[in-house]
Every structure is written in structure tokens, then in C-alpha cells.
């Protein structure tokens, strides 16, 4: 009996160690912080097919193989307008490296969005969102909200509110280095 | 002796991992709060907290609840019984608000809310409050949503309705 216990104890400790290491690994920044339970990390990003404001058809699944930054924003949202120029820079910087920004405006009408696109010289597609698209993405009930989608089309991060852009940039670079 | 050493070492490693893991997770869960809460000119006495409004919804004397922000966000989820007025950060939205309240008594209890953005960045709630104040309404409150409607209302399990 005592001998059995001596044999079992190291095994149990090893099991504890393995479980702890697994838990620790699962709490890596990209996997956790920015994705509340509602957003379901690692689920497939809901597909959509819509015309953007330059009359080009945008279908999310056609971006498979690229890292996609999907940004829900609006022209009346101050924190959104702070982020958008940086997303534009990233499109320039990483665009040739299989990276794509897609903007989804939650404005009620297109004219102010078109005006903002032109004013900020946005170089990525922007399309009009609505309550159905918002619901598909777990509820967009406050802006901005940004999703980072990996090459396989899975949501890897959800950033709510005025975000830490340095952190998002780091997450993008991590995904770009992942094949 | 060897077994005892293994036991102590393993326990120490386990504790270290758990502590480190806990620290990381705790750091990750710190919510980002709006730093611009003080930017608004709405007096704190005129604010109503979400939990307080939920109690009012169950009471006998319900206020008139007006959403003064985005129609898309309203369609996705709004407070049951609330009405969409228009984005009062725009002149069209303010006009719409004036029209909605034109036939009301000045002592009508009105609760305004938006929740499109963090409180200090909301372009709608302050103009709406100031407009009603200027029109002479005496019982106007603004729902305080620190981050947004999703986090501070829907995310807390308070009742929501959908549709335009």
C-alpha cells in the first residue's frame, strides 16, 4: 500500500504540473485578454458578402490565407477616428505581407462615411454594417470594436473600446509570422 | 530522501506557475475605463445608474426613455419600451428630439441614453440633456453608461429588445 502510494505520488505531481503548464499556456495574451466569452475566441469569423462604398464586392472568405483586421466604427465615434489613420498605415505597411484591413461602418447612412473615407484617404475597403452583421459578431453595442482574424478565418482577438494600438500591432505581427 | 526532494521541488514549481498564471490573467482582466468621465457637463445629480433604471422599469411610474444615439445600435439592442429619437450630436437629431417632446408637460420624467461610445466621448448625450434643460424640462436624467450599452447594460443581463 505504502509502496503504491510512493509510486503514484510522483505521477500525480507530474499530472498537476502538466495541467498547470497547459493552463498557463492557454492564457497567452493573444488567446485571452481581448476576447470576452461572448465573442467566442477561435470560432470561425462569420462570413459576409456585401458591396463596399467603392462598389466592390467584399466577401470575407475570399481573404483566407491573409490576416484580417475587421474594424467596426462610425464617423461620430471619437475613439474610432483616432484608430482609423493607424489602421490605414498598417494596411500600407503590412498589406504586401498578406494583411488586410476591412472597415465596417455602423453609421445610419453612407454619405458621412464616404466623406470621411475621402478625407482620411482610406486605402482599405469600407462597407456599411447593420444590426444583423453586428449580431453575427456577438453584438456590436458600443464602438469601436475590432476583430483580428487569422489566416484560417478564425477570430483570434476582439478589442473593445479605445484600444492599445501597440498591443494590436504586436498581435498582428505574431499572426503574420504564423503560417 | 530523493522522493521528498522531488515532492518539494514539484510543489514549488507548481506554485510558481499558478502564481505567474494568476498574475497574467489578473492583468488581462483589468477593464479599460474611460478616462474622460469628467468631460461631460451633465451634473452628477442628473445621472441615473443602470441598476436604478432597471428598478424603475419594474415600478408603476415608468419614465419616458429616449435613445439619442445610433439607429443601427438601437436596432441591435435597446431598453424595452425606449424610443429611438435620433443622434442628438447632429442638428437633425436635436430637431427630432424637440419634436418628440413638444407636446409633453415640462415635468415629464425623461431618461436619455446613448451608450455608443465611452461616456466622455459620447457626442449625443450631452447635447440632448442640454436641449431638454434649455426647453425647461425639470425631470430629465441621463443614463450613465461608463463604457457603452453593450458592456454596462446588455452585458450585465439587463433587459433588451431588438428591432427598429
From TrEMBL, chain A:
Keywords: Isomerase, Redox-active center. InterPro entries: AhpC/TSA (IPR000866), Thioredoxin-like_sf (IPR036249), Thioredoxin_CS (IPR017937), Thioredoxin_domain (IPR013766), Thioredoxin_ResA/DsbE_sf (IPR050553). GO terms for molecular function: antioxidant activity; isomerase activity; oxidoreductase activity. Pfam families: AhpC-TSA. SUPFAM superfamilies: Thioredoxin-like. The keyword Coiled coil does not apply. Residues 39-177 form the Thioredoxin domain. It comes from the Bacteria. PANTHER family: PROTEIN DIPZ, THIOL:DISULFIDE INTERCHANGE PROTEIN DSBE. This is Thiol-disulfide isomerase/thioredoxin. The lineage of its organism: Bacteria, Pseudomonadati, Acidobacteriota, Terriglobia, Terriglobales.
UniProtKB/TrEMBL annotation, chain B:
This is Rhodanese-related sulfurtransferase. Keywords: Signal, Transferase. Residues 1-26 form the signal peptide. PROSITE patterns: RHODANESE_3 (PS50206). It comes from the Bacteria. Residues 59-162 form the Rhodanese domain. GO terms for molecular function: transferase activity.
Amino acid at each position: 500500500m505504502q509502496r503504491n502510494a510512493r509510486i503514484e505520488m510522483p505521477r500525480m505531481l507530474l499530472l498537476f504540473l502538466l495541467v498547470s503548464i497547459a493552463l498557463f499556456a492557454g492564457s497567452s495574451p493573444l488567446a485571452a485578454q481581448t476576447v470576452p466569452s461572448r465573442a467566442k475566441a477561435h470560432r470561425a469569423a462569420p462570413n459576409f458578402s456585401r458591396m463596399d462604398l467603392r462598389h466592390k464586392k467584399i466577401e470575407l472568405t475570399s481573404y483566407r490565407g491573409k490576416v484580417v483586421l475587421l474594424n467596426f466604427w462610425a464617423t461620430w465615434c471619437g475613439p474610432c477616428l483616432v484608430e482609423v489613420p493607424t489602421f490605414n498605415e498598417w494596411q500600407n505597411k503590412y498589406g504586401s505581407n498578406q494583411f488586410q484591413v476591412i472597415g465596417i461602418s455602423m453609421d445610419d447612412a453612407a454619405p458621412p462615411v464616404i466623406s470621411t473615407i475621402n478625407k482620411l484617404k482610406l486605402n482599405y475597403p469600407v462597407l456599411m454594417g447593420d444590426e444583423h452583421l453586428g449580431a453575427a459578431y456577438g453584438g456590436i453595442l458600443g464602438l469601436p470594436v475590432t476583430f483580428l482574424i487569422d489566416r484560417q478565418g478564425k477570430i483570434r482577438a476582439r478589442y473593445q473600446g479605445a484600444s492599445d494600438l501597440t498591443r494590436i500591432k504586436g498581435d498582428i505581427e505574431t499572426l503574420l509570422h504564423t503560417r | 530522501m530523493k522522493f521528498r526532494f522531488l515532492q518539494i521541488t514539484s510543489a514549488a514549481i507548481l506554485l510558481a506557475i499558478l502564481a505567474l498564471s494568476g498574475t497574467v490573467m489578473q492583468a488581462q482582466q483589468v477593464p479599460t475605463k474611460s478616462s474622460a468621465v469628467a468631460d461631460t457637463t451633465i451634473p452628477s445629480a442628473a445621472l441615473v445608474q443602470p441598476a436604478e433604471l432597471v428598478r424603475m422599469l419594474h415600478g408603476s411610474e415608468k419614465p419616458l426613455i429616449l435613445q439619442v444615439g445610433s439607429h443601427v445600435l438601437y436596432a441591435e439592442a435597446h431598453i424595452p419600451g425606449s424610443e429611438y429619437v435620433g443622434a442628438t450630436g447632429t442638428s437633425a437629431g436635436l430637431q427630432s428630439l424637440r419634436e418628440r417632446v413638444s407636446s409633453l408637460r415640462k415635468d415629464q420624467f425623461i431618461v436619455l441614453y446613448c451608450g455608443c461610445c465611452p461616456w466622455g466621448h459620447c457626442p449625443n448625450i450631452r447635447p440632448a440633456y442640454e436641449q431638454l434643460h434649455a426647453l425647461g424640462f425639470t425631470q430629465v436624467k441621463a443614463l450613465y453608461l461608463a463604457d457603452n450599452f453593450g458592456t454596462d447594460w446588455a452585458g450585465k443581463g439587463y433587459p433588451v429588445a431588438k428591432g427598429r
